[in-house]
Specification:
This protein has 307 residues and is of the alpha/beta class. It is built from ten helices and nine strands.
């Protein structure tokens, strides 16, 4: 077992995925953050509030509420709670603006939107920041509830790494994806169509929607180059304001985007603390430019939290 990279069974060991996530009855969502979860996840301090968002308690009726939807880049993978771009932006904008981090690691576009419809719409956000990354138009990651893979994942780092890259046609609990998901190209086309329709429906309800396109931080392969173009096309096709972070990252790093990765040696696409600051400032400027918030931007999102 040790040669296979698997340690002997450890008593009372809790799979961190299942400690912080719960399966959802709606197959369109698959899983959610577990309300009230606390501890260390993805090497960072994590607190999940009563709404299943990586945030402290939701403020009652703030003058302006911003809800951030998306995947692990929105969640803040490997970034401590108070150092995420949402936390920085929340502090910078002051008590009259509540910025709520509703990102969930592994979500694709349709999962993030379905989660909003099912459990977050009643927050009544004035502004929705819809974050999209290169793989967010692909078929969703699924979290298994139990079985040999869950046992293996709890004991083997290699298994957890492999799972992060897995996109399956059979979801947790044996759920199948829709028929149009059999081919990833078909899925991406349909996800784009549904995603655009969702944005337009939220605007019709009176919400402001800003689509934020997050780039790869590492040199892109042909496949990632194609998906990057699809994400840009999606953002432009919604007919709503967008924020494209790639040129902003390039300006901040003299074109050396890997400098913003939490682990450039491993090719990790998640932004580090410097990247979180850049995102917060870019959003602040864009929201102010649109006239959606009144607080004028500064050169920093404020003091960084203590280590």
């Amino acid at each position: 077992m040790r040669l296979a990279g698997v340690a002997p069974p450890a008593p009372a060991q809790v799979d961190p995925e299942l400690q912080f996530h719960a399966l959802d009855a709606d197959p369109a969502i698959g899983y959610t953050l577990r309300p009230g979860a606390r501890g260390t996840f993805q090497n960072a301090a994590v607190r999940v509030n009563e709404r299943g968002c990586r945030d402290d308690a939701v403020r009652a009726a703030p003058p302006v509420r911003i809800v951030a939807l998306g995947d692990s880049i929105t969640f803040g993978a490997s970034i401590d709670q108070d150092a995420t771009w949402e936390a920085r932006l929340d502090r910078a904008l002051g008590p009259d603006v509540d910025v709520v981090n509703c990102g969930v690691s592994g979500y694709n576009l349709l999962q993030a939107q379905a989660r909003y419809d099912a459990a977050l719409a009643d927050l009544g956000p004035d502004i929705i920041v819809l974050n999209v990354f290169s793989d967010d138009l692909s078929a969703p990651y699924r979290l298994a509830a139990s079985g040999p893979w869950t046992w293996l994942r709890a004991r083997s780092e290699a298994a957890r790494v492999a799972e992060l890259g897995w996109i399956g046609l059979v979801g947790g609990g044996g759920r199948r994806l829709p028929d149009w998901a059999a081919d990833d190209v078909d899925y991406r086309i349909e996800a784009t169509r549904q995603g655009i329709a969702w944005v337009q429906a939220r605007v019709a309800e009176g919400r402001k929607v800003l689509v934020v396109a997050h780039p790869m931080l590492m040199p892109v392969t042909h496949r990632w180059q194609a998906t990057r173009s699809e994400v840009r096309s999606f953002a432009e096709s919604t007919g709503q304001p967008a924020l494209f972070l790639e040129p902003i990252y390039a300006d901040a790093t003299a074109g050396q985007l890997p400098r913003l990765s939490i682990n450039p040696e491993a090719g990790d696409p998640h932004p580090n603390a410097d990247g979180q600051e850049i995102i917060a400032l870019a959003l602040w400027r864009r929201l102010h430019e649109l006239g959606w918030i009144d607080v004028p931007p500064r050169d920093t999102a404020g003091p960084r939290p203590s280590p």
